[in-house]
Amino acid sequence: MTEEEIFSRCRLVSSGGESSVYKALQSNGDVVALKVDRELRTFDPDLVEFLKTQKHTNVATLLSVGVCEGKSFSVSEYVKGVPSSMLSPMPPLIAVRILRGVALGLSHLHGVHKPHGDISPDNILVMETSRAVLIDCGITGIGAPRFAAPERFRGESPSVRSDLFSVGAVLYYWLAGEPLFASDKFDSVAEAVSRIESYDISLLLHGKGSLSPEALGALKPLWKGLLRYSPEDRLDDFDELDELLEIAENRLFAHTLDRKSKEKLWDTTLLEHIEARERTIEARAVEFPLGKNSFASPKISRDFLRWTMISLFVFLIVIAVFFGWIVVTRNAPVDDVGNAMLQKTRHLQSDENFVNDVIDSPDWGGVLMGAPTPIQEKEKEKK
Question: Structural domain boundaries of the chain?
Fold first, then answer.
């Protein structure tokens, strides 16, 4: 593992049969999603490079992949949201709007011939702004059976049209609050999926009693283009799906009663779900999914270290300038004192010469021998 792949404060977000996902703090201070597989898996290098470099608002950005202690792992941006499975059932207008974001993300992937392969309610996260973000792209296996296309049960690789089928199954789940293929047994799900042509989706939703006739009519073209047994009978791509979704959204918008109050209630409910999920994650114990030797305490971020060094350098420059200023400002008084001392010395020399002259004078020659001075002589004569 490289320095960038040292993590701490790993808390479990979700766990499945093949992998577990953790909210982790990376060594550079970023919060990331760390997915640890239970077994070694092979990463598609082209898909990895694409997800790392070609960012999209509806697809989680991949940061790195690797292997540690016999387990493969991947690191992605941490999406602060909730799995769409937690929000079902949804109002039809909200569901169609969120699905348009999913379609845009899948169109981005399929533009470079990279199908998702495991579209399910749990692999679509919904953020506070109702923005959908796809995670876990590039699964090579069948993925979640309840949302897999019929050809996937036959061992075929994921494709645009298999992803389209999965999108249709997800939309039904969002509206009904339960999967279209509800069995817990793999074989039973496979059999139910194979009989998709016998399903009347509109009738099934009508039986739930939560959708109006206008809503059922707006959604009907979607089932015809998505939930079909043969891939050739489905839509061609996600651009075509987005066109149908736009038409459905406009029809639903026109027939939705109390739309503003319902949207406000949805926003409030979504925010509560997100905050509750974050509190639950943060309350969990810290784990070491790749072993304690592979993890370390958070290091000082590089940006913080860089700015600290810059600040220290500027501080040293300021100190140097300050002391230089003191030295310069004190040089003037020192010079003045030196000049004054020089002048004093010169006066002392002058006084010394004067004394010497007096001593050498004839009138003052006897002073040193105790003889009276000329002035003293004159004072004596006056008396």
Answer: 3-78+292-299, 81-278, 305-382
